[in-house]
Write a structure and sequence with these properties.
By secondary structure, the protein is an alpha/beta fold. It folds into three domains: 361 residues, no CATH class; 26 residues, no CATH class; 177 residues, IlvD/EDD C-terminal domain-like (Glucose Oxidase, domain 1). 38% of the residues lie in helices and 14% in strands. The chain has 22 helices and 16 strands. Helix 7 links the parallel strand 3 and strand 4. It is globular, with a radius of gyration of 24 Å. It starts with a helix and ends in an 11-residue tail after the last helix. Its cofactor is [4Fe-4S] cluster.
């Protein structure tokens, strides 16, 4: 089944735009594949170093040239809930590899930081750039050229995009992504949000807030709201990089372990030493990328992926734009209501039918390319399933349920929550911006109000606490882009603006920073491009300027004449405070090299 004409038109546009870069990329992939990653290309000294720490069995296997070797890239650490479950995965993967006649080695580790820990803190200014560090760290691990395929252990916000960039850069190797799964359900998300707003208003203390947060984030696994981490898992599955049905199975369960071992066996099966060679650079193409964008919109996924998907696609020679994402959004309905655009969490989504149900609905509606290659073989319909544990301890798969288990959480195509996706591009005399509309009620999608300009999120917080902004306004927070300070998320502002909206004021946010996958009920025009430090008009907005944010029409304007704006000088911010501390001095070069948000905010 082919995708309907609107989706095919965007795909063809991407294909034509990408032709020169994609052809050059595929030529590099084919050249690398022809040389092979077999151990015989290494000198005896190279090879001896490569397996010196292995056991006798693995040494003997690697000394020849007929046994496939998996390179494991892991983001394990035991501080962060999402990555702690990866601790036993290398042992499981090595066991599965030996049982299948192969070998597996941990090729390298990559850093994994948590935006939840660094929100509102100086460390958040390293967050976006950590994606590119992760890509480079993974490349270092794979550069030893000891491997016939790679498996990538990662879950959260910047980790999976960074790993994907590395995987596509090493496109001559098969690549399988192995998730750890979400933590079990804790405190309901609406109750967590309520306590956060009460704390912002000073009605409850830190002790009550910490208790609520601890009940929400209470065990191993990803956070259960539908932010960037869980959007990552959806993307890896709908783009064919996971084994079918593996994204949202809880950690430390027999099914999770069975899926991990199965993924290792599959990675071995698709190396060049077998009959199903599937180099990831050939596997991923423009259709796969479009499928990812469709899934992002159908689930109301993270706005961060309007940056990450562009960078990921570019690593495979594919040139994706914000306009492509917006045009797909216009043709893809919203099928999921998961917090922050609903009350359910990702476990409820999975129990209602999850990705298998959603992929089947989108395929039947012609909104996905079915004729793609995946790590599981040709065709995306293989992913319209539900994974279960068989009596023998292995994974078995059944067709996705015919009906949603809860239509308030996961809707069939015929009963979509809204006819368009959750992400729009705003355009106007201020430049371009992204807005996530899926959680914003219709009456809040058009805001016309005077600007109040801030150059730090702390300044807005102080104004709120002083009672100075109890009125209609559009908060403009600038000098928050990748070139200025690494483009931190400003999610700490969500409760404050939510309080003001609940008091009846018409409020919105306009920023060249990020607002995260947890963008909520307040309209937020984010990723404004060009950013203030790049000469963007956002740097010319003044207190009191009338602004108009219209998410329905897709416009963002400062209501000042072109002549007036032309004559204004660019406001300058003192950025000296973000040059040092908690490692920020090490990232000065990244800030100088970073591309614009609509180009992926990458340093390479």
């Amino acid at each position: 089944m082919t995708a309907r004409r609107e989706i095919e038109a965007v795909t063809q546009r991407i294909r034509e735009r990408s032709r020169p870069t994609r052809e050059a990329y595929l030529a590099r992939v084919d050249e690398a594949a022809s040389k092979g990653a077999h151990r015989t290309v290494l000198s005896c000294g190279n090879l001896a170093h490569g397996f010196a720490a292995c056991g006798a069995h693995d040494k003997q296997a690697l000394a020849g040239d007929t046994v496939p070797n998996l390179g494991i890239i892991t983001s394990y650490n035991d501080m962060l809930s999402a990555h702690q479950p990866f601790e036993p995965f290398p042992a499981l993967i090595k066991e599965a590899a030996r049982e299948a006649g192969g070998v597996a080695q941990v090729a390298g580790g990559v850093p994994a930081m948590c935006d939840g820990v660094t929100q509102g803190q100086p460390g958040m200014e390293l967050s976006l750039f950590s994606r590119d560090v992760i890509a480079m760290a993974a490349a270092v691990g794979l550069s030893h050229n000891m491997f016939d395929a790679a498996v990538f252990l990662g879950v959260c916000d910047k980790i999976v995009p960074g790993l994907a960039i590395a995987a596509f850069t090493f496109g001559h190797l098969p690549a399988v992504f192995i998730p750890a799964g979400p933590m079990t359900t804790g405190l309901p998300n609406d109750e967590k949000a309520r306590i956060r707003q009460l704390f912002a208003e000073g009605k409850v203390g830190r002790e009550a807030l910490l208790e609520a947060e601890s009940k929400s984030y209470h065990g191993p696994g990803t956070c259960t709201f539908y932010g960037t981490a869980n959007s990552n898992q959806m993307l890896m599955e709908i783009m064919g990089l996971h084994t079918p049905g593996s994204s949202f199975v809880n950690p430390n369960t027999p099914l999770r372990d069975a899926l991990t071992k199965e993924a290792a066996r599959r990675a071995l099966a698709i190396t060049s030493l077998g009959n199903e060679f599937t180099p990831v650079g050939r596997m991923i193409d423009e259709r796969s990328v479009v499928n990812g964008v469709v899934g992002l919109n159908a689930t109301g996924g993270s706005t961060n992926h309007t940056i990450h998907l562009i960078a990921m696609a570019a690593a495979a020679g594919i040139r994706l734009t914000w306009q492509d994402i917006a045009d797909i959004s216009e043709n893809v309905p919203l099928l999921a209501r998961v917090y922050p655009n609903g009350l359910a969490d990702v476990n409820h989504f999975h129990a209602a039918g999850g990705l298998g149900f959603m992929i089947r609905e989108l395929l039947d509606a012609g909104l996905l390319h079915e004729d793609v290659q995946t790590i599981w073989g040709p065709g995306l319909r293989q992913y319209a399933i539900e994974a279960k544990l068989g009596a023998d301890g292995n994974v078995v798969r059944e067709q996705a349920p015919a009906a949603s288990g809860d239509e308030k959480v996961l809707a069939p195509y015929a009963k979509a929550f809204q006819p368009t996706g959750g992400i729009r591009v705003l355009k106007g005399n201020i430049g371009q911006a992204i807005i996530k509309t899926s959680a914003v009620k219709g009456e809040h999608r058009l805001i016309e109000a005077p600007a109040i300009v801030f150059e730090t999120q702390e300044a807005l917080q102080a104004a709120f606490k002083a009672g100075e902004i109890d009125r209609d306004f559009i908060a403009v927070i600038r000098y928050q882009g990748p070139m200025a300070n690494g483009m931190p998320e400003l999610h700490k502002l969500t409760p404050l603006l939510g309080v003001l909206q609940d008091r009846g004021y018409r409020v919105a946010l306009v920023t060249d920073g990020r607002m995260s996958g947890a963008s909520g009920k307040v309209p937020a025009a984010i990723h404004v491009t060009p950013e203030a430090l790049d000469g963007g008009v956002i740097g010319k907005v003044r207190d009191g300027d009338m602004m108009r944010l219209d998410a329905n029409a897709g416009t963002l304007e400062v209501l000042v004449s072109a002549e007036e704006l032309q004559g204004r000088e660019q406001a300058r911010a003192d950025l000296s405070g973000n040059q040092f501390g908690l490692g920020r001095e090490l990232f000065a070069g990244f800030r100088q090299l970073a591309s614009r948000a609509d180009q992926g905010a990458a340093v390479f």
